[in-house]
Amino acid sequence: MHGMNRRAFLRHTLQLATGALLAGCDKIQSVGATNVGFAALTDHRGATLPPLASALLKPAVPIPDVSLAAKIGQMIMVGFSGSQVDTRDAIVQHIADGLVGSVVLFGRNVEAPEQLQALTTTLRGYSRIPLLVAADQEGGWVTRLARGFGIASNYSAQFLGARDQLDLTRAQGESTAKRLAELGINLNLAPVVDLNTNPSNPVIARYERSYSADPAIVTAHARTVIEAHRPYHVFCTLKHFPGHGSSRGDTHYGYVDVTDSWNVTELAPYAALIGGQNCDAIMTAHIFNATLDPEHPATLSTNVITGLLREKLGYGGVVISDDMQMGAIANQYNLETAIRLAIIAGVDIIAFSNNIPFSRGASANRLHEIITGLVEEGMISPDRIDQSYQRIMRLKRRLTG
Questions:
Q1: Which residues are paired to 293 by β-bridges?
Q2: Residue 26: per-residue pLDDT
Q3: Which one of 11, 205, 348, 394 counts the least CB within 10 Å of its CB?
Q4: Cα 226 vs. chain centroid, distance in angstroms?
């Protein structure tokens, strides 16, 4: 690539992101697609990108007007135990009762292709509203489908970014998406768009989860992955907003402060991909950044989720929390407070992995009771619940294609 193209990308993106964050300018989306010659329209080599044929919604169908209880259920994502389920299992009952709108799969749920396909078919069969079935299939260290599941390659993002061959990234993305779709998984919790700015990062760099420290390379490879998934009606999730790559700690275990290490350039992939309509869902980070919010971590921050992501970057789609049982949240907030702050902040789907015992209070019916109580007590408005429901349903109605 030519150095000038990359420098131009960084200059334009940094100016836009910095302006949005510090100067309160108009939405980046409103200017990015037409006036700025960066990743929304060109790749990091300066080549013109073709439009995404499936980027826009299919012809609109009415979103069903359901009860408040059903809307709240759509906001809950849970993990569960076991590789087989039937009507006696709590997860099946919760799906059938409308208490859960999404599930997330982990290694404990996965044994073999035939088993996994049967599992997802059973789960989806009990849901009145299409069920999101999610998994972290990033490639490399973070993968739920190991050898024998028919994915052509399992390169890490760091490997792919270092090679910087988009055809290689596309081939792995297509193979991944095809297999996920065949197995009944319709939401990939990938790609990671964190910048690899801290080579000693214990949760991003250590596991080779970032494509590069260069936002242009990250954007180009993430966009390629998303393009590869869309023909198979598998959604992608950009993570971890507003950027986890500079952290010195791991939010799985506790409080992580990036105030002194985070840089506004970490917003560049989000600005480009949102502006180019290359975004199905975005996952939050539990990092704390006093520059963005002096009180709360990003997942619980109205400043970050509503102010920065929605109002300044112009994102109107689904926001998914990172696992709310991670130490950065669970060690600092009680369950009710964390859920309340996340919803007020603008999070649409509250994720609980249940990789820890249900005794921590993360059963689907308990989560549903908490959100219902918050509405009944007037701490969250019915309109706020409806906002998330509408976003989730706009995403789900694309599943049938």
A1: none
A2: 40
A3: 11
A4: 12
